Amino acid sequence: MIALLRFVIFATVVLTIVYVSVSLYSRAVRRDKLEREWDGEIREGDREAFVRDGLKEYDQSLRRKLILGVYIVPAIVIGTIIYIVNYT
Fold first, then answer.
1. Which CA distances in Å does 51 have to 9, 10, 48, 77, 82?
2. Is the CB of residue 76 less than 8 Å from the CB of residue 84?
3. d(Cα 77, Cα 64) in Å, to the nearest integer?
4. Among 9, 24, 34, 42, which is disulfide-ready with 54 (CB 3.0 to 4.6 Å)?
5. CA geometry: angle at 71 spanning 34 and 12, to 5°?
6. Nearest to 16 by CA among 67, 52, 80
7. Distance CA 27, CA 8 (A)
């Protein structure tokens, strides 16, 4: 039981690091895309406000929520493997 608890804690730490990394990378890519869109269309006004509004939309997007799959997919895979090994 202690081994399982250690594994769960270790897995949670590793998956949190992966989640934060993927989340920051995805947000940086979206920011770059918004900045290129602004530069390409040569808009007038506040560039930072345009980027900020675009990132607010990104925070509510499905893509942002799908990154949570970093936690869900490994848990399902590990649970399935444990079930198959022990009960089949």
1. 37, 36, 5, 37, 45
2. no
3. 22
4. 34
5. 115
6. 67
7. 28
Q: Which of 55, 65, 70 is nearest to 19 (CA)?
A: 70
Two structure tokens written together for 39: 């530069």
pLDDT at 51: 92
pLDDT in tens, 28-84: 999 999 999 998 887 778 889 999 999 999 999 999 899 999 999 999 999 999 999
Q: What is the model's pLDDT at position 17?
A: 97
Q: Which residues are within 8 A (CB) of 55 and not within 5 positions of it... i.e. 6 or more apart?
A: 27, 30, 31, 34
